[in-house]
Structures are given as C-alpha cells and as structure tokens.
Hints:
Blueprint: E1 2-8, E2 13-19, E3 50-61, E4 64-72, E5 75-78, E6 81-84
Antiparallel strand pairs: 1-2, 1-5, 3-4, 5-6
Amino acid sequence: xxxxxxxxxxxxxxxxxxxxxxxxxxxxxxxxxxxxxxxxxxxxxxxxxxxxxxxxxxxxxxxxxxxxxxxxxxxxxxxxxxxxxxx
Length: 87
C-alpha cells in the first residue's frame, strides 16, 4: 500500500491519501462528515468544484462502505502542477 499527498480544489488543499491502484475514484472526507478524523474538504471554498447529482452515492471497498456526495474538482500530484481539472 502506498500513500502520499494530493492537492484538491482551486485552493490546492493538501490531503495525505492512500493510493489504491485498483480503483478509479478518489475519496476524501467532506465538511459534513460527523465522525471523520483529520482534515475535511469544504467544496464550497473551491471555485473549480462541481457536484455530480443530488443523491448520496455508495462505494464498497472490501469490507468498507463509503457513503457520500460525488463532486468533480481539480486534483494535482504537486501543488499547482501535474493536475487533472475535472477529476
């Protein structure tokens, strides 16, 4: 398992993430998370954030079930470089 930083949104907020090579999703805790530890992401502060749909989505990762709202946003490997705009 690998981990390292990714930078999210127009403000390039840094999160330490686990790189799951078997998934095409990036999951981070949002500001509405009531039992999260550490940083949470406030999508309203990112001018590049766009909500995808209105309903809650579910993703199963092994024994873990993730529930949340889907967004696209700018995601970068390095601050302001090596970015995907609508990830």
